[in-house]
């Protein structure tokens, strides 16, 4: 009976679908586990960086330096002055509430003349127009010391943000120290600093310097969920097959009883 069931068109299709679902779900579980490992590693980097004391920014980066994963999020300090005359804004950035606006990128001239780029935080867009330069609150004037998180130069591959050309004046899509060095004609330290202190007056721009941790355990749970689904497919296939066989036996029994009753009535 099982052979006759499995050779029907319906059960051939059901079996093929089951055979496709099992490896697909296993691969999805493996992918989720890889995501869990990646997120756990990133969270560990954040934890390690937050546990270390602040150091002068020039201990970790220099002109042309590529900020490494172990240097990312490290707390650094810089003493000098903000150069608001060469300030730019980074387009299409969101705050914690998902509102779209800008990040304020201000060159910070160190006491030795080198420049470090400081992301002073998020500001809202001024109305529907994205061509006019937004109004930006001024930073602390004169000589000051800022603290922040060291970040690598941004790329489209890492951020998913397309680097659009021919933007309005003083607007950029990605933070790139080499490009800013050419624009400023200065020695710019590699990467940039996401400011964490001092707090701006009026809470604007909104500081973004403290990194958040990703929910790695969620990917771990999804991985095992997919693997449980893959194990459930053959179990479900067997249950459906046995139910089909039972239904056929019951139907055959009913038809046999009806035939016997008809024969008896004819006699």
UniProtKB/TrEMBL annotation:
The chain crosses the membrane at residues 12-31, 224-241. It is found in: Cell membrane; Membrane. InterPro entries: Surf1/Shy1, Surf1/Surf4. Belongs to the SURF1 family. Keywords: Cell membrane, Membrane, Transmembrane, Transmembrane helix. This is SURF1-like protein. It is a multi-pass membrane protein. It comes from the Bacteria.
């Amino acid at each position: 009976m099982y052979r006759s069931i499995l050779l029907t068109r319906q059960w051939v299709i059901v079996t093929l679908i089951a055979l496709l679902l099992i490896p697909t779900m296993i691969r999805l579980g493996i992918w989720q586990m890889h995501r869990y490992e990646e997120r756990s590693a990133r969270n560990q980097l954040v934890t390690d960086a937050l546990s270390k004391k602040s150091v002068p920014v020039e201990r970790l980066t220099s002109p042309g330096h590529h900020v490494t994963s172990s240097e990312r999020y490290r707390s650094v300090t810089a003493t000098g002055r903000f150069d608001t005359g060469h300030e730019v804004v980074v387009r299409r950035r969101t705050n914690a509430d998902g509102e779209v606006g800008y990040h304020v990128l201000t060159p910070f001239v160190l006491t030795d003349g080198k420049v470090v780029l400081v992301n002073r935080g998020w500001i809202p867009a001024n109305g529907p127009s994205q061509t006019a330069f937004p109004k930006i609150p001024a930073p602390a004037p004169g000589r000051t010391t800022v603290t922040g998180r060291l970040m690598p130069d941004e790329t489209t591959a890492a951020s998913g943000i397309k680097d659009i050309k021919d933007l309005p004046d003083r607007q950029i899509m990605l933070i790139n120290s080499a490009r800013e060095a050419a624009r400023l004609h200065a020695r710019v330290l590699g990467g940039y600093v996401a400011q964490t202190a001092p707090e701006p007056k009026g809470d604007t721009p909104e500081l973004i310097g403290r990194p958040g941790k990703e929910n790695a355990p969620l990917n771990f749970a999804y991985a095992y969920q997919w693997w449980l689904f893959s194990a459930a497919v053959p179990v479900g296939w067997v249950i459906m097959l046995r139910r089909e066989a039972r239904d056929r036996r019951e139907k055959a029994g009913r038809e046999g009883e009806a035939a016997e009753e008809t024969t008896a009535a004819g006699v």
